[in-house]
Specification:
Helix content: 40-55%
CATH class of the largest domain: Alpha Beta
Order of helices and strands: EHEEEHEHEHEHHEHHEEHEHEHE
Number of strands: 13
Mean pLDDT: 92
Strand order of the largest sheet: 10-9-8-13-11-12
Number of domains: 2
Structural class: alpha/beta
Number of helices: 11
Largest sheet: 6 strands, mixed
Distance between the termini: 34 Å
CATH topology of the largest domain: Rossmann fold
CATH architecture of the largest domain: 3-Layer(aba) Sandwich
Length: about 290
């Protein structure tokens, strides 16, 4: 294990294999289904994503909870005691209180362990956008980057981490207050699919709409063409709400249009999926701007 630990939370949607490959530690957020609380671990030990989305399709309602100060303290203190420095890359403050909890924990533990370096960064990212930022941080560490150099790189480039989303069922955006009930009804009748992104403040906002599912998937890739930096050389992450075939369709379009070779696909986990619903597809890459 490196002397520098990179720690993130499960909203990054990194699967068990990827988290192990990157040598990063992941704190699970919580979600509630049918009054039962589960933790969203990378290995899905308490509920696998397919089961989660099947429950949503059957009409179950999911709620989520952030990482609290006590969870951060419990995860961080043994690492500091063992002599590690720790860089936390936290879920967007525009979508969760997780980052705020990390700030409190960092302040308390930094005073207790003054010889250790302990930093937290508000990634302003979600799902595999956050995961891709963690991936870049891990690459910098592997090349010998110090904790200060990696933190500074993440702070400088986090608003270049582009998030493009579309959803299949407008109900979940309506329930979360992202769109009105009237918009959801009319959009569903006309097969309108929103195109959304995470903005510079880390909020999920609408940037367009498309008529039909295939047009919405293409719109994600069209947006990448407008904003990606040297797209053929990029590592691209794609997440999906239990619709792997659609995620693969986007991956195929990205490969064909930009000759991208390095693509990682994984589920939108329950923490994000509770608010975006089954059928969500999201595309992540480094660009000129979000």
């Amino acid at each position: 294990m490196s002397d520098l630990i990179i720690l993130t939370d499960s909203s990054a949607d990194l699967g068990e294999d990827m988290a192990r490959e990157l040598d990063v530690q992941v704190i699970p957020l919580g979600f509630v289904l049918d009054e039962h609380t589960y933790r969203d671990y990378p290995d899905s030990r308490e509920m696998d994503p397919h089961t989660f989305y099947d429950r949503l399709r059957r009409g179950d309602t999911a709620t989520t909870s952030a990482v609290n100060v006590a969870q951060y303290t419990e995860a961080l203190e043994p690492l500091l005691q063992a002599g590690h420095d720790v860089l936390i890359l936290a879920f967007s403050s525009g979508l969760s209180t997780t980052y705020n909890s990390s700030l409190i924990a960092v302040e308390e533990l930094s005073a207790k362990y003054p010889d250790r370096k302990l930093y937290t960064v508000d990634t302003l990212c979600a799902s595999l956008g956050q995961g891709l930022l963690v991936w870049y941080a891990a690459q910098l560490r592997a090349r010998g980057g110090t904790i200060d150099e990696i933190r500074d790189w993440v702070e400088e480039h986090k608003r270049n981490l582009c998030h493009q989303f579309t959803v299949d069922d407008l109900y979940f955006l309506k329930r979360g207050g992202r769109i009105s009930a009237a918009t959801a009804i009319v959009g569903s009748m006309l097969h309108i699919k929103p195109v959304l992104h995470v903005d510079d403040e880390g909020h999920l906002v609408s940037i367009g709409k498309a008529r039909g599912r295939q047009a919405a998937l293409k719109a994600l890739v069209d947006r990448m063409e407008e904003t990606a930096i040297d797209p053929g050389s990029l590592t691209v992450f794609i997440s999906h709400g239990d619709c792997l075939e659609d995620a693969q369709t986007v991956a195929d379009m990205v490969k064909k249009r930009f000759n991208v070779q390095d693509i990682y696909i994984n589920y939108v986990g329950p923490v994000i999926g509770a608010h975006s619903g089954p059928g969500t597809v999201a595309l992540f890459y480094i660009g000129t701007n979000r």
